[in-house]
Amino acid sequence: MSQTTIKFYFETKHQDNNYSLDNLKSKPMEVSSQPPLSLSNFSKITCCESFSLPSNNYDIGYLVSNYTSYSSIAKTLSNSELQHLVKDVFVPCKTFSFPKNLNGRSFQFMWIEKFPWLTYSKIFNGAFCLPCVLFGCNFPSEYSLVEKLFRKPFDRWNDASRYFQKHAFGKNNNKSVCRNKGLHVKTAEVLFSLSSIWSSKTESIDITSQKIVQSQVSKNRQLLQPIIETIILCGRLGLSLRGHRDDSEFHSENSKSFNHTVGNFIELLHFRVKAGDKVLEDHLKYHQQNASYISKTSQNQLIRCCGEVITDTIIGEIKNSKYFSIIADEASDSSNKEQLSLVIRFVDSKFNIREEFISFLHCTNGVTGQGLFDILLKSISDFSLDIMNCRGQSYDGAGAMVGHTKGLSSRILILNEKATFVHCYSHRLNLVICGSCNVQYVKNLLAYVKEVSYFFNLSPTRQQKLEEHIECTVPIAVKKKLKDVCRTRWVKKVNGLDTFQEIFIPLVSCLEEMSLNANKSFNHSTASSASTLLKLITGFDFIVAMCITRNVFDLTLPITRMLQSKSNDIYDGLNLIRALKDVVISLRKIVDQHHKMCYEQALKIAQSINVAEAKPRTSFISKNRDNTPSESISDYFKLVITIPLLDHLSVELDTRFDDTTLKCYKALVLVPTKMISVVQCSHDTSWKDSIISFSDFYATDLPNPLALSGELDLWEAFWLNFEGDVPSNISETLKAINFPGFENIKVCLKLLATFPLTSCECERTFSSLRRLKNYMRSTMVQDRLNGLALMNIHSEIVIDINKVIDKFATNNRRLTFK
Predict the structure, then answer these.
(1) How confident is the model over 539-559, as pLDDT tens digits?
(2) Which of 67, 99, 464, 751 is the most buried (most CB within 10 A)?
(3) What number of CA atoms fall less than 13 Å from residue 247's CA on the CB side?
(4) Which one, of 266, 272, 271, 267, lies nearest residue 226 by Cα?
(5) Closest by alpha carbon to 28, among 120, 149, 112?
């Protein structure tokens, strides 16, 4: 077995700066009464051609005078050679006569008793630190500022005791002394470890040396832990880490060098130190040069590692599921960069439907179909996912996404025909509402509401006046600010109309006061605009259109909100849309009753603001207005608003939600409630043919396609005789059959659950993007953005700090972490 060399004991890394020399003091060196032998009498232990070790009772000055040669072979010394250098160094006896310098002062023996690491050189008539001389060359980052007692003798005897004290313990306000202390602590610990090994008879040197290395690594990991915890805290809360001028050097708050413009990260580290984190405090005070790990570069690396731990967790679950769907959407950030949000939908091991964000992708090649395809395919490959396991994709209706020939969805379908494209249901429903808004009265209504909202929301003075009128007129009103009826935010459009009608009366009174401007509180432009808006919204046709449109649009609000749930599947989506269609059709059948209810609401509001019931004048030739003949004013508005609005809504729903051509539509009959209703109504087995047709397309995904027919027979009997609540969607069905059996049907259900319904999760990630990369943080690099976004969006995922450190340690570091 080869001898263990000194390289096992050296890691040029950070040590615990609270190390004490008490153990060394308890084991003083043997003192020789003989003077050192002359250099010519040394017997040689050859280590290399240029240097050889001295014999017993050698003078430490021999090593110092040949330090360049010694340092070149220091790490290759064997255990016996190290023991010789430590135990056989010359130590004078108490009666030794030390030479005096020009001032009549000399070395004192009591210093050796007080500082057991101290040794005397007769050659130089000076003092040296034995561990620093023997082992200091193994810590190049520490010895650059240390000369006395290490590479040069100390011989200023009038200041000796104080200097020896500084060398051992240092001072916090002196950087060079702190470096000096850092070198001495490291070398003294090595000397102590070696002494323990030589005196031990229970463990081998290899085992002990391995423990030393493990102890060193453990200490290094402990000092990095509070830094990572602070980064995770900032990431989860969405806090910015860096300040105006961050400083990698630690200064107490009472110090003149303390920087008061540092960011949250440095401030939180200071807070931890004040709370008693001694490990962090010692690291910040005595860290090696360029090894603080709190700089912006280290921040970026640690943030990236935290993000990778999160993505590794998610990607691992996706791989266990095997099949997944891609959900993507594009938006620009504060630095005007196009960011593609990538979300993966899959069914986890507990049969929960999950939609998980994994990355923002910078669209460096533009937002064309080819550019998006290239960056998406590269990202999927980087995450070690197989695009051939993709079973669905969902985007909004942009041409670059859904173009039939050059869109992103078409390019993926060419590569993988099983990646079924589903146009986002929420976007489609918004298009239905927008299409219904082509009714002229509805179009005018939304335009006027938008103008009034801007008029108040863009001026604090006007908003304050509106709140005063709301407080006086409708004190119980919860909403006190108008909402913008945004074209792309479908929920805000409906909520905006609800709020507008709720505070309509105080809104009118506020505009009346502002248009009159009796107290000259507003300028002429504001008064003129208020007068114009007042005339627009106090027409009887506007009030009727507001009541009718709000009641119809309110039908879509609960459906819109339910569609945005992550756990919904394609079956839930079709049921929700079918329910909305049924409601619209039923209202069309009883349109007279529905219109009467809305018209009575309009009359009540009109009377409260003294507006007479009226209809627009009728002309013989009219191209730009509705000129429908009617027997009454109520019938006129029914014919020009209520009926066209319901008809448009019904037609748009049928046109935009025709999903019967989707291959997955045929397999939805697997859901027990639907299967039972089909069997009980038709009393035939034709529903099985639809499943067989679906399975033929996905035959390679099934574990045993030939056994599917028998499973379907058993499936029908199982649910017809089932006692209890029958599952009504795909997710519930999967959880209900979480037992051996129905293996082919389970795969079919997992595929159905994997098909995406909406791209709403991407919209939610863009909300996080705007919070994280705002105008004050617009220069953030992509890796930092993704790491912070992953921590903020997936705040429920517990980050394993040990895994973060392991990833951080894969690159070369000044300290060893694994």
Answers:
(1) 999 999 999 999 998 888 888
(2) 751
(3) 12
(4) 272
(5) 112
